[in-house]
Amino acid sequence: MQASIELLDAEGEDGLTVRALTAHLSTGRGAIYHHVAGKDDLLAAGTDAVIAEVITAAGGDQDPSQALRALALGIFDAIDAHPWVGAQLARQPQPAIFRLWTGIGTLLGDLGVAEPDLPTAGSALVSYVLGASAQYAAGARRAADGEDREAHLQQLAEQWAGDEANPAPGDTAALLVEHDDRDQFLAGVDIFLAGIAAQM
Amino acid sequence: MQASIELLDAEGEDGLTVRALTAHLSTGRGAIYHHVAGKDDLLAAGTDAVIAEVITAAGGDQDPSQALRALALGIFDAIDAHPWVGAQLARQPQPAIFRLWTGIGTLLGDLGVAEPDLPTAGSALVSYVLGASAQYAAGARRAADGEDREAHLQQLAEQWAGDEANPAPGDTAALLVEHDDRDQFLAGVDIFLAGIAAQM
DNA sequence: ACCTGAACACCGTTCAAGT
DNA sequence: ACCTGAACACCGTTCAAGT
User: Fold this and answer.
1) What pLDDT is stored for residue A77 in this prediction?
2) Domain that includes residue A188, residue range
3) Domain of A101: which CATH number?
4) How many structural domains does chain B have?
């Protein structure tokens, strides 16, 4: 398990091959099939391990509102460090997501959200956290892949400016470039908490 | 392009193979490489085609708040119909996402959100829409895969109830089972809009 | 310019044979 | 019970040869 997480981090999603893994563990290609159902199982188990660690680690805070932010940021940082986790979570619902949902639900309850609203508020916040983390991680990975981030965003903006059906305001590219992913992510969490407070 | 979208819808993400596609088009395996960079390009272009169609189709509504809901629901339904789109969007930022972001930004502006807040509010809403759609689509696909949905959720709940570090309230499983995905998705959009109204 | 399809370098998974 | 590694049935991509 640890070996496959290392492989995924180092080589990306395509780097996890049965051959590479069994070579790293210096065993035969067929050996892992005695411990795991197949490659998919490996990816799922690795994803759950990463998310589960974040959930258990983020238990320290007293203030529920701060605890929610800390938990959300923990997921964000984990997916930033392991981008394959973001892709996997969009592909397959996993046990760890269920634990994240209940953990967030409990904190929202501590915050004063009424019991009948907890499932809706909780799953909306979970969806935001996972969606935003995956989105930022994918963007960051692309930027790190040798592409110049600013040039890429500029190109995106120009490409879209050329789309006549949907013309762009002049400063769109600048707005795209000038922001900090982590701050913007947290601002989204706050929008959510404000909406829940206002409406539930 | 149309052929590969059909293949992806019918056979899933793994069903799009160069061999199946070229057989369907009754041409040689190497022929597509004269029109497209490779398989990844095919998946990216198909994803952009699906999203772009939703964006151009959802232009009818006058009230910006209703237009936002219609656009969000359009993305939700598209990803529900083409689940591979959800997975692809979590893996790679795409031009169509940029257009979605600006489209949502414009509508948020019409709704009265101040210009400096538009990028943050817009990307938060985009992240929610994409994350939630992918999540629900993945869950629905799993349920359709012959698994009994209720039994599966029940099992998830029991599995988690056995986790001693994080005990569950008794009715968690029931709450999981009794909801409509589409309604819950829209409730999340409304939480967002309420949060933006309250805070920006 | 575009297509063909054999060839190449990979995959995940299985399974008889070993320990 | 667990491991080995050859074998099998696939992949995506390339490229000399054709039209």
Assistant:
1) 97
2) 58-199
3) 1.10.357.10
4) 1
A38 touches strand C (CB under 7 A): yes
- Does a structural domain hold residue B18? no
- The alpha carbon of residue A25 is apart from the nearest alpha carbon of chain B, in Å, by 28
How large is the C-alpha radius of gyration of chain B? 20
* B21 in any annotated domain: no
Q: Pick the residue from chain B with its C-alpha nearest to A91.
A: B87
Residue A191 lies in a domain: yes
Q: Is some CB atom of chain B closer than 8 A to the CB atom of A152?
A: no
Contact A192 B192 (CB under 8 A): yes
Condensed to tens digits (0 to 9), the pLDDT of residues A113-144 reads: 999 999 999 999 999 999 999 999 999 887 76
Does the pTM surpass 0.85? The reply is yes
pLDDT higher than threshold 50 for residue A164: no
Nearest nucleotide (CA of B32 to C1'): C3
Asked if residue B9 belongs to a domain, the reply is no
> Which residues of chain A neighbour B89 with C-beta distances below 8 Å?
90, 135
Structure confidence at residue B168 (pLDDT): 52
> Each residue's pLDDT tens digit in chain B (200 positions)?
999 999 999 999 999 999 999 999 999 999 999 999 999 999 999 999 999 999 999 877 789 999 999 999 999 999 999 999 999 999 999 999 999 999 999 999 999 999 999 999 999 999 999 999 999 999 988 776 555 566 666 655 655 554 444 445 555 555 555 578 999 999 999 999 999 999 88
Nucleotide nearest to B33 (CA to C1'): D13
User: Is any Cβ of chain A less than 8 angstroms from the Cβ of B195?
Assistant: yes
Of the CA atoms within 13 Å of residue A13, those in its CB half-sphere come to 15
Distance B197 CA to D13 C1' (A): 52
B166 with A55: Cβ contact below 8 A: yes
